[in-house]
């Protein structure tokens, strides 16, 4: 039931073959950005790709206390003051509510299907998708941010770099059209957020949803680490939620336990 | 480098041998308390042991928002609304600051060493240990609780059950003496806390430090689960720390990047 | 963005209110089985429910090396020899491929919908559901086990206890009918497995899918702990997969780095 | 019990201050290597530091199946086929047996203390440290590798880059002397391994033990991700240890349960 196969690496005495390159060469000739990309994607990034890759990887470096990941990691470190479990535990908070470009990616996949199947433009596909979401009462992913109300500068910068480097294609165009259609239909002035922008750029670069989530995890890691180290040095033991209220039953007696307890 | 050995269980078609008993028999004839004990300790609990075991396992069932484990789990669930990662992440907060009877256990080990090596009474060993900790400026484990200021009723109940069942022996006596000596010496009125009481009772039952931590993890699990399920149903996405302040540098320009940025 | 609410517990100086009962009473009068149930379900188990609850909680106590959870935990402990991270990491392997009664639960929900909407019997609903899965080429959950080929005794025992205690109702009947229809249609002789049986019994007791997954996590925990403690004492450092093969590219030169490397 | 403070970042509407720089500037002007360093260290890397930083971050990019982290992550993904829990779970395997430059760092700290306190040379301090370890029967950290028997090319490359860039100082010298003394004393031909080399270089750059562990975690992440994605796509469900043996008791009857079971 095991018998594993991998194309990531092969390790022997004195040699590591990482995706077809010597790890020694990677160590001395590539940046970590390139090495990380190679490890995950199985190829080196193209020249323009490398620049936007750095922008993507830097975009989530830290979002401070306004992040469930950091908050979770701090509480873990406060109970269990060690680096590794707190950082790993913080990563566990990456999911459908945060660090989640995959949902916007799915929307782009749906739009692409419509364009291909019915010969639609990005603008036409956008109308149909927005329709579909609004009539189903579903929240559209990739728009709005609890902190960055009017615009999410990280998204704007990613689009700017993508355009400047000639990377922006149907992904960026489609997401922009989705945003335009959504704004027109709802009147809401929610910005394109970083998850949406990551997904759009990923589409244009041929990255998969999984791969862009992976990059988001790498992006989030250093901030998590920074916060955990801080908590280890200056934090307080036994931190806990202080703004909680109890909404359950008051204390009652346990129902009769057969004359003096069940034992 | 693998080739594992185990005495926990053996699994074949139609049969699971759990520590020398058929899992079928365990399912139909034992309580979970007994089954869990068997899995970890490799033997069935003795009659009196079973009662105190239930008391130990129930003692940490939940400590609400006043627990780093629950707090961490809630934040994880808020970012990643799934049961398993949030519960596992909450467990990661068990460490030297919480759910940690092992530190009191170490103190009891030291006291036992002194008693054996120098023929001391529990009271005499207590004096020496308290001395040792106070003169080294170290906090003594097992005393005091941020919420239960005057007494920790969970500790008191554990000692009461242990005495009533004839389980209390040198472990309970030694820890009580440590507490007496500590109180006399410092004048502080800190109660014996649940971690300390667990360790004392564990000593008298022949459980190891590791085993009592294991029981504490089992004890903590249901409350964690209850909170995570609640967060999944009634929680809010993207919860985060709201009482944080920034103490770092204000924003400066990046130092000159060699005429227009490194790229 | 926080402001938590809970009905699990309220903690004050000298008192823990757990779901409307004093934790002190719980410690001295309830078994852990009851205490854990109370913490998660918010009520005490009924008399018959308590018996099947113990059977459910004991059913997954350990499945030895034939478990992804245990395997994962062992490798973690081999790299990081500590109890807490290895146990928590092992729990992370609970998901759609293992410890996952939720999929069978969904099937039972679908069958119930059919019965209610169209006045079908369990047998009729079973035919339609099996049809639906087979024609969609989907694997039916709750049937078959890689080790327990002909029958899964844990499932059989759970059904036996449920029938004996008068708990078996439409859930058990529906799942039995699903199994009958599946076997008749496919000719495959796969047994009802423990995940399927757990789901069926849960249905009859009014437990939710989430709650039965929670119980499965509690069930799995002691075995995980037993294995991790064993690995900590008798294991080997740096265990790793030994039956892996590399299927990727051989080592090539890095593409020209502009005369002497990018730096 | 909370009231957090941080100097990592401050987040407001439209602005993220990361360690005193605008995240927008970081996204457009820095590599991820620099951004990650800034997040953790609170300052930008110096010019030579950036080069060795990339070498450090690339050194553990992947070690394939010969890694407890990767092995653990694969088993988790096989039970729970999701990216985030498997990757986080893999990280939990970083500990005292792997990805652990901290132990070599401690040795360097001890040697530094000796040099400062007694005016010793690196060679003299090395003799004393090796003495201390050997006479206590302790394994010296930083030497030897189960796969890279004669030399660990990653360590060699790190030292080469450090020397070439003028970074090598007392840390590299001291660790080299420790190795020389160890080899002379024991006759064993174990190479300096990557953990040892990381620690030595970290010392010369003024990085703390914690910071170099943090960098090692970042280094390890992309390979983990690559393996997990592979397992998600081409893996098998329910993988488990296949080379395990049971060494416990054969199945016995449960001891008499008071005439027909305890209930």
Keywords:
homotetramer, 263 residues, mainly alpha, Cytochrome p450-Terp, domain 2, three-stranded antiparallel sheet, 5 strands, disordered C terminus
What are the SSEs and their pairings?
Four copies of one chain form a homotetramer.
Chain A: E1 5-6, E2 9-12, E3 15-18, E4 21-22, H1 23-29, H2 32-41, H3 47-59, H4 68-79, H5 83-91, H6 102-118, H7 122-135, H8 153-164, H9 170-186, H10 194-205, H11 209-234, E5 245-246
Antiparallel strand pairs in A: 2-3, 3-4
Helix pairs in contact in A: 3-8, 3-11, 4-5, 4-11, 5-11, 6-7, 6-10, 7-9, 8-10, 9-10
Pathway (chains A, B, C, D): Carbohydrate metabolism; tricarboxylic acid cycle
Family (chains A, B, C, D): Belongs to the citrate synthase family.
EC number (chains A, B, C, D): 2.3.3.16
Brief overview, please?
Four copies of one chain form a homotetramer. Chain A has 263 residues and is mainly α.
